[in-house]
Amino acid sequence: MTQVTSLKQMAELVKGGPLKKVAVACGQDPDIIGALARAVKEKMAQAIMIGDRKKTEDLAREHKIDPKIFTLIDETDPKKAAARAVEMVKKGEADVLMKGLIDTAVYARAYLNKESGLLNSATVSHVAVFEVPGYPRLLIVTDAAQIPYPDFGQKVDMINHAVAVAKKLGIETPKVAVLAAVEKVNSKMPCTLEAAQLAKMADRGQIKGCIVDGPLSMDAAVSPECAAGKGIKSPVAGLADILVCPDIHAANILYKTLAQLAKAELAAMVIGTSAPVVLTSRTDSDDTKFMSIALSALMAK
Question: Which domains are seen in the chain, by residue range?
């Protein structure tokens, strides 16, 4: 498979294949209906809108969208709508779960429920794929939205999840940079110790399918010139495909900086569940929501 270098190219991989069914919890959402309609019209997915049917139909018409392109299931209670969407995915009646007009905490509780949810691994993490102007490859960032303070075991799982996404994008041996503020191990900075341990685990084959190095600062991870200037000799430095952040604060700041200041295009999803979960923000663009559907459909493949 040829390595994917743009989100448009990623979306094209999904089109023309078997249509993936997207179950939307509380589909009466003005922020996502356009992206879903686009996904349906471009033969990427089928949308199952679970929520207030009348509001969804009215909203579709307001956006000049024929509501008949969606499968509509009437359920006005948000908790029940989320539970129904999760149940459909769990039973194989849908391939992807997506957040609609529902509180994030209510939505997350539904798919993270130990009995009725979609858990199938020890760690559920958030993965974002960025197309950054001037960067020659897609850049994968984890975890900006799911795990506040990942412990060492969770970081191993975060890497494995991000690598799984990278493989679907045709990156045969992803280069993983474990980020910190500095490149040297410092006992007073625990994240640098963990970064070095993760790199050694990969060297010994305990983390497979990728090359891991760290600690690396952000500039050394993505700029060959910065890495060379700092005298860093590493197969990852300056060439990173995946950035593993020390905590949710660093990852979220990086995510929003790339999106808002660097004007990067992006797609994001939650992984570690039995099916992909789309978790977008209200501030995300329509293109981000559409590309997030495309990424989730690709992973559902």
Answer: 7-120+273-300 (3.40.50.10950), 125-260 (3.40.718.10)
> Is the pLDDT at 220 greater than 90, yes or no?
yes
> What is the pLDDT averaged over residues 198-218?
97
Q: Please write the tens of the pLDDT for every residue from 150-173.
A: 999 999 999 999 999 999 999 999
Q: Report the alpha-carbon distance of residue 34 to residue 57 in Å, rounded.
A: 13
Characterize the bridge pairing of strands 125-131 and 139-142. antiparallel
* Sheet with 45-51, edge to edge strand ranges: 71-74, 45-51, 20-25, 96-99, 277-278, 265-271, 125-131, 139-142, 242-244, 175-179, 211-216
- Residue type at position 299: M
Listed in order, strand segments (DSSP E) in the chain are 20-25, 45-51, 71-74, 96-99, 125-131, 139-142, 175-179, 211-216, 242-244, 265-271, 277-278
Torsion of CA 69, 70, 74, 80, to 10 degrees: -170
In 160-256, which ranges are E strands?
175-179, 211-216, 242-244
Which percentage of the chain shows pLDDT scores above 90?
93
Cα–Cα distance for residue pair 187/261, rounded to 1 Å: 33
Is 283's pLDDT higher than 90?
no
CA–CA–CA angle 263, 96, 114 (5° rounding): 110
Tokens of 98: 């997506």
Residue corresponding to tokens 């020890």: 122
